[in-house]
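Data availability (excerpt). All sequences and predicted token strings are deposited with the supplementary files. A representative entry, LacI family transcriptional regulator, is shown inline so that the format can be inspected without opening the archive.
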Amino acid sequence: MATLKDIADQVGVSISTVSRVVNNDTSRSVNADTRQRIWDAVAQLGYNPGKTARDGAGSKRGTAARQSDIGKIGCIVAVNQNKYNHPYFSPILEGIERGIQEHGGELAYIHNGEDLKSPEMLQKVIQDGGVDGIIVVESIDPVVYDAIKRHIPCVVGIDVSDPSIPSVGYDRLMAAKHAVQHLISRGHRHIGFLGGSGRSLDITKEKRYRGYKEAMDEAGLALHKDWILDTEWNAEKSYTLMKRTLEKTTKLPSAFLAASDMMAISAMRAVFESGLRIPQDVAIASIDNIDFAEYATPPLTSVHIPKFEIGWVAAKTLVDVRQNKYPLPVKITLPFELMARQST
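Structure token line:
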């Protein structure tokens, strides 16, 4: 059964753009050509949220769908860039949509952080959206988040630090720590970090940095401030900072941990342009294991995060919460796995 992601992939736009078009959302403009191509893909792929939800029969999940309609569900993802295919968030959104459909629900919309900057859009989401629940993917603006919690009957988070709501995710601190321990096991003693600070604007509070520091501290290894690069979660800045560090720093680390593959891959380009080799001169490990990771040059060592499964479990958790299966807000943590490749 076709999903919003299938349409987005075919047309080459973001899932949120497809969502706006098929739901006749006019809060942000979509040019006429793109709108027509989306509707053409809808017709070609046979997309019908209500129909796909009802026709999920045939498996045990399909049977459950007919017995537990969860209604209309909205989704808000924290990424601000309206990219046509975000390599980390896109599989999560696909998992959410499939999970909602398989349990008899309908995905009403997907909005990103940029959408919610509009007061009109926020009004529509919290009062006029008519949804029975919302899945929030990562931290969004606190004012917007509080408004959603006040007006939406059921909220489930993905990697949201709020003990008052059910949440699904992975242990970011332990994932980073595991990657650093892998680098240490390969003989590295001088290890740098590429990451971002998040809403706190303090990189030392971010969980992947804390995992990096914890692994270094436990191994008795020193941290050097010149090797800790705050990229602000921007791939271009990751490239720029890495290149500047390689050009100006006299004593270089033999390895880096990147908090995401997108930052790692852009940093790898800077390493090559500086005339250095990976992993002989600088080894790089990362977190996420997006599809591009194994096709980097060399293939990137990365901690695999079960992105699709996180989305699907979040949808299932919302079903369970609406059926009052949990007396307390449940926190579900999915496992990760290190994928060792040639970059280390």
